[in-house]
Amino acid sequence: MSNETYTFNAELRTATGTGASRRLRREDKIPAILYGADKEAASLTFEHKDMIKAQESEGFYTHILTLDIAGEKVEAILKDIQRHPFKPKITHLDFQRVDAAHKLHTKVPVHFIGEDVVTKAGNTVVHQLTEIEITCLPKSLPEFVEVDVAGLVAGDSIHISDVKLPAGVSSVDLAKGADHDQSIVTIKANKAAPVEDEAAE
To answer: Which of 107, 104, 82 is nearest to 25 (CA)?
Structure first.
């Protein structure tokens, strides 16, 4: 896991509702909510420029974040991000508090390696999943899950059960039973170019 830290300043807000959220967005701020860990939900506000920059990093979605709320440091993970349908604007954020003693239920991205080997062999890599749903204690939260496809040939596939998850990390789908063992990636052969008849003139 990366040692990079993600700390963001937040303000508590008392005014809630559609009208209040609209006013905040006009001021270039983002309304947000923080919940979980058996505590009362808190309504927050973030500077839009800070979050726009943060959301460009994959770690924003996968790391445990530190929210500085009026001087109080709270650890949380991002659970949802809502964006404007056509403007480059974030409209709302949902965060869940992190409790070291309680397992997180979240998703982590899949990083595929070795794809160049497959494509050079004349095959296509088809991603079925780009993230895996997991549960783990906060200390075991991985940044991503790595899937190596270099040794695969046309017709091969990798399922969730084929992936070695880090210690302390469990797949939500596999916990539901073998019939939930989804395919993560499959390899398909490219259509061969027609071979010209050498005898033809």
So the answer is: 82
Residue 49: how many CA atoms within 13 Å on its side-chain side?
1
Strands 104-113 and 131-136: antiparallel
C-alpha angle 134-138-141 in degrees, rounded to nearest 5: 50
Q: How far apart are CA 66 and CA 64, in angstroms?
A: 7
State how far the Cα of 168 lies from the Cα of 45, in Å rounded to an integer: 34
Burial (0-12, 13-18, 19+ Cβ within 10 Å), 21 = buried
Where does the pLDDT of residue 37 fall: very low under 50, low under 70, confident under 90, or very high at 90 and above?
Answer: confident
Summarised one tens digit per residue, pLDDT across range 122-140 is 999 999 999 999 999 999 9
Evaluate whether 78 touches 95 at the Cβ level (below 8 Å). Answer: yes
Q: How many angstroms from the chain centroid is the CA of residue 80?
A: 10
Give the strand pairing for 145-148 and 104-113: parallel
Q: Identify the three-state secondary structure at position 141.
A: coil
Q: How far is it, in rounded angstroms, from Cα 80 to Cα 63?
A: 14
For 185, list phi and psi in degrees, rounded to 5.
Answer: -150, 145
Work out the burial of residue 167: count CB atoms within 10 Å of its CB; fewer than 13 is exposed, 13-18 middle, 19 or more buried: exposed
Residue 189, strand partner residues: 123
* Closest of 48, 65, 47 to residue 4, by C-alpha: 65
- Check whether 49 has a pLDDT greater than 60: yes
